[in-house]
Task: inverse folding
């Protein structure tokens, strides 16, 4: 999809969502018209919401591989339209900012210090299914599309590596329960990135299975529910041969590639605002993946995220 068309589609969807919420709704009570009635989720109406965030991480890691060993900043914004009887549709964008000149010194691209080197507009459609009686928790499903844009100024003339735009399809399914919250996610890259002249074909599939549990520490300290929560998580990552070829330029076979773990402490001092420091690590499992990543077969990171939802 062309960038301009994608942006126009996002703008149109933003406008459509806003118009649904802003348009007056007139109803008649005893044949007398009354003023605007707010859309109420409890009455099966559509609810407009959104979120903004800023994430700081000590390393830029994708699929357990270090893309940038230096800190990055990731701002994001999202708008959503939801109805508990139907689905939630969300549009948003996030961006990756370098904080050092790694791209020029050690990376395959130009100096992008305090400049974005990646811009990711996305669209998701999700639904929560009432499966409490059958499964002991509600089933949550989500499908999505993401366009990954790289500025042309990222490309270094002396490098054989190219940073063309690419696109992704995503799918996730999880169970919201009071214990392990199992989640399966899948990412399929529609266009491969790599060495110059070697960017044809699909980028392959990377999937994860993860479990996590949230402990409400605040209630044990006399706080309200949800104010202070600790969430540990762990999982395993899998990749097909196309994904491994895109990441390692070899190893054209399926792999149970990496194991990962994380720990997040989320503090919500007021409604909608959350501050969450976190730590995590990835360990490559497959011997070929270990050989390809070298000293970075194990990588640890830390960060903090600030978000506001309305």
Result:
């Amino acid at each position: 999809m062309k960038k301009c068309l994608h942006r126009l589609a996002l703008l149109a969807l933003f406008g459509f969502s806003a118009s649904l919420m802003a348009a007056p709704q007139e109803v008649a009570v005893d044949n007398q018209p009354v003023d605007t009635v707010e859309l109420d989720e409890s009455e099966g109406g559509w609810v407009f919401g959104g979120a903004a965030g800023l994430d700081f991480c000590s390393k830029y890691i994708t699929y357990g591989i270090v893309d940038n060993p230096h800190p990055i900043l990731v701002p994001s914004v999202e708008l959503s339209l939801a109805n508990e009887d139907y689905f939630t549709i969300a549009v948003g964008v996030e961006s990756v900012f370098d904080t050092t000149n790694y791209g020029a010194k050690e990376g395959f691209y130009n100096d992008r210090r305090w400049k974005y080197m990646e811009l990711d507009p996305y669209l998701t459609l999700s639904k929560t299914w009432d499966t409490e009686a059958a499964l002991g928790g509600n089933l949550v499903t989500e499908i999505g599309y993401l366009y990954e844009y790289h500025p042309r100024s990222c490309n270094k003339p002396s490098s054989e590596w190219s940073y063309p735009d690419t696109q992704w399809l995503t799918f996730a399914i999880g169970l919201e329960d009071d214990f392990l919250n199992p989640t399966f996610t899948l990412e399929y890259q529609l266009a491969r990135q790599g060495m110059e002249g070697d960017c044809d074909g699909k980028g392959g599939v990377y999937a994860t299975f993860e479990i996590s549990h949230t402990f409400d520490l605040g209630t044990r300290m006399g706080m309200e529910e949800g104010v202070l929560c600790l969430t540990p998580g762990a999982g395993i990552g899998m990749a097909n041969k196309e994904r491994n070829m895109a990441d390692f330029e070899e190893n054209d076979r399926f792999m149970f590639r990496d194991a990962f773990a994380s720990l997040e402490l989320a503090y919500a001092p007021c409604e909608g605002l959350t501050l969450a420091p976190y730590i995590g690590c990835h360990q490559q499992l497959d011997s070929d993946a270990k050989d390809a990543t070298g000293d970075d077969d194990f990588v640890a990171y830390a960060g903090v995220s600030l978000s506001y939802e309305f």
About this structure: The chain has one domain: 43-309. DSSP finds six helices and 17 strands in the chain. The chain has a mean pLDDT of 84. Residues 262 and 280 are 4 Å apart (CA to CA).
